[in-house]
Amino acid sequence: MAAQFLASLGCRTKVENTAKVHSRFKHPLDPLTSEEIVAVTSEIRKHIATNTEIKAVKFFTCSLLPAPKRAVLAYLGIPLEPGAKAEAPVPLTRRAEVDLIDAVNGGAYNVVLAQEGDKWQVETFNALDKVLHPQISPEELQECEDIVRADPQVQALAKEVGVLPEQVFCDGWSIGYDERFPHSQRIQQAFVYARLGEHENLYAHPMDFVPVVDSNLEKVIHIEEGGYKQRTDLKPLHVVQPEGVSFKIDRHVLEWQNWKMHIAFSQREGIALSTVTYNDHGEVRPLFYRLSLAEMVVPYGAPEFPQPRKFAFDSGEYGMGTMANELSLGCDCLGQIHYMPGSYVTHNGSAFVIKNVICIHEEDSGVLWKHSDYRVGGRGHTVRRRRLVVSMVCTLANYEYIWNYFFYQDGSVEFEVRVAAEVMAHYHQHLFCLRVDPIIDGVKNTVIESDVSVLPDAPTGSTANYAGNAFISRDTVLETETGRLYDFATERRWRIVNSARKHYSSGKPAGYSIGVKGAAAPMMVRDDSWAAKRSSFLPNTLWVCRDVEGKDTGSKRIWPSGKYVPMTREEPEDSIGKWVDGKKSVVDEDLLVYINFGVTHIPRPEDWPVMPVEHLNVTFKPNSFFKANPSMDVPGTKDALSVPAFTKDQGGSARSSCCKDSST
């Protein structure tokens, strides 16, 4: 069944199942290659055969277990303190972490392996608590649909409304919370739809029953019942770069316009960016050790059956990487594109390869800066803004999510989520958690909260505030681990700073400001709701805590909702609400920052039958980090291919331009 599923995906995938020896890594955070995945799973099979009574297994995750941060920074020559030398590099051991399930009895295991020379060796092989479940795989989702479609009870219910077995389709969802089923059972609930035509939107025909499937037993264990024409007036619009792209790629390391970063594919997070640095006039300054989407929650707000059952943790329960699209040249990204592949493990231990999963390209983004002398004879100067885009597209049931990391020439970084869907007209939310591991000029950072308010104790007419117009920005250092809410009344903002490095002019510590205005969204459920019990990290807009690493591995604080999310009924012990006790100092410490943002979707008639894209953005802008505007050296340019729209001069260039004299 799994092989049929993989084969059905056609050109989207390639399956690697031959173990090969992979050359030594060039970067310690390089993700496991498809060859390494096969080598790792092969070694696990050998270990199981000689050391356990397990007869057959299914693999669910297989990923790099990062080395400690300090060791990685030393390896890359990145200093821990401003002006200091990097620590001496130490030998790094490449490790892999695997989650698997005993295909006979359903027991789950976590395995850690280390690479010794050209071979992998099992270091730990631990059984998970019976209430913990690895994330749900794409193969399980397909198997769920096959099981449901073949079930006699399902066929009978479908027949009652004139639906044939081959017209039955379903989306498997983690059941999340249901006291009626043992916590140890690995089960999915299936939301069933009828597709009455070959290419019809199946979500337009939801069916009013929900089968519950035991993934290990591979059977249904319970059933709960309860005129278009494309426009023709669009002319072609092309993105061209006649001299090629301005970025450089060396495997997973990218360089562009003073930026340098490592880009990896993650089975759970999708895109993972790490060791992000900026070359500030010859000084390579570290900014972020890692940026990634840590969790995503979609609670539905309709009380009618079966909507209360829907509160998916899409990242933790399914994985962004496993749901990623094979991107198409000229459709998902325009211009000159560089694609990166991604691999994840299948049940049989082979590597599932998505060839074009991450898209990298440049695009025009309007005006970077501009000024015109309004006086007669005055000149104007315009500099166009260009940005680097690192993107991925995921499909989760009826929704598409486009993930964009934007890097700008003024030193800014932006994380954007674009949400689009086929019809599903119930009130619901899309809530995201961005994990930020900052290294602003080093690993010792602090978070400062700023609130804007009118000048206190200074009424209109007073000496201090004669016209009544004065307002101030008040800074508060977050001294201990905490969670903080966005305050619209004060336009609250936060910045991550390195207090050891002060700006020569402002006197403030070098830092980056976090912008969430327009994206902050409270979770619209009751505190004792099923969804809230599982996602206690969401009530705050921002969390600040210390990073904690393992003895021989990287951070132990990654997942705000816990490492093992499927079927959790309350906040796990390894989730952010359990880490933060308000006692540990976060001043000049190795920090983690979690940013929650989202959108509440109240459907409109214009969302039918496919919802236009919704944009959500989190920004990181330099604040007393650079001496001045770092984009002043970006040249003004005149596009020779731009022409007036409604003249006979369609083939020539513009006669004049506000950036004509930009070089003088």
UniProtKB/TrEMBL annotation:
One of its GO terms (molecular function) is primary methylamine oxidase activity. Residues 134-227 form the Copper amine oxidase N3-terminal domain. InterPro entries: Cu_Am_ox_TPQ-bd, Cu_amine_oxidase, Cu_amine_oxidase_C, Cu_amine_oxidase_C_sf, Cu_amine_oxidase_N-reg, Cu_amine_oxidase_N3. It holds the Pfam family Cu_amine_oxid. Keywords: Copper, Manganese, Metal-binding, Oxidoreductase, TPQ. Residues 653-664 have a biased composition (Polar residues). GO terms for biological process: amine metabolic process. Gene3D superfamilies: 3.10.450.40, Copper amine oxidase, catalytic domain (2.70.98.20). Its cofactor is Cu cation; Mn(2+); Zn(2+). The keyword Oxidoreductase applies. It comes from the Eukaryota. Topaquinone (TPQ) is generated by copper-dependent autoxidation of a specific tyrosyl residue. It is an enzyme of class 1 (oxidoreductase). Residues 237-419 form the Copper amine oxidase catalytic domain. Contains 1 topaquinone per subunit. Residues 645-664 are annotated as: Disordered. The modification 2',4',5'-topaquinone is found at residue 399. The keyword Secreted does not apply. The active site is at residues 314, 399. Its EC number is 1.4.3.-. Belongs to the copper/topaquinone oxidase family. Homodimer. This is Amine oxidase.
